Amino acid sequence: LARLRDGDPEGALSSVERSVALQREVGLTTHPSDWATAAMALHSLGRLDEARARLSLATSEAELPPWRGDS
């Protein structure tokens, strides 16, 4: 997110992709904010269809445990 705020959407996307890969490698669940950050970076890069897909993924994951507020 810091890279995105610093005006480096490519770096932000790369960082998110590395983070997600590492999380999956060790069996951790990705966080919806990973996908939201990727969506913002992709939008900044003009890759709107990919951005919408990542935002949809963020929204879907936010509704599942452990991220849902009622679990």
Quick summary of this structure?
With 71 residues, the protein is mainly α. It has helices spanning 2-5, 9-25, 32-44, 48-62.
Overview of this structure, please?
The chain has helices spanning about 1-5, 10-25, 30-45, 50-60. The chain is mainly alpha-helical. Helix 2 (about 10-25) runs antiparallel to helix 3 and helix 3 packs antiparallel against helix 4 (about 50-60). The longest helix has 17 residues, at about 10-25. The radius of gyration is 12 Å and the shape is globular. The chain starts with a helix and ends in a 9-residue tail after the last helix. The model has no long low-confidence stretch (mean pLDDT about 90).
What overall geometry do the principal axes of the alpha carbons give? globular
**Which ranges are low-confidence, i.e. pLDDT below 50, for 5 or more consecutive residues?**
none
**SS field, number of helical segments:** 4
- Based on CA atoms alone, the radius of gyration comes out at 12 Å
The quaternary organization reads as single chain
Main sheet attributes: strand count, strand direction, barrel closure: none
* Chain-averaged pLDDT: 92
Which band does the percent of strand residues land in?
Answer: under 5%
Per DSSP E runs of 2 or more residues, the count of β-strands stands at: 0
Helical content class: 55-70%
Q: Determine the structural class based on helices, strands and strand pairing.
A: mainly alpha
Name the helix and strand elements from N-terminus to C-terminus, one letter apiece.
Answer: HHHH
Task: Measure the end-to-end span.
Answer: 27 Å
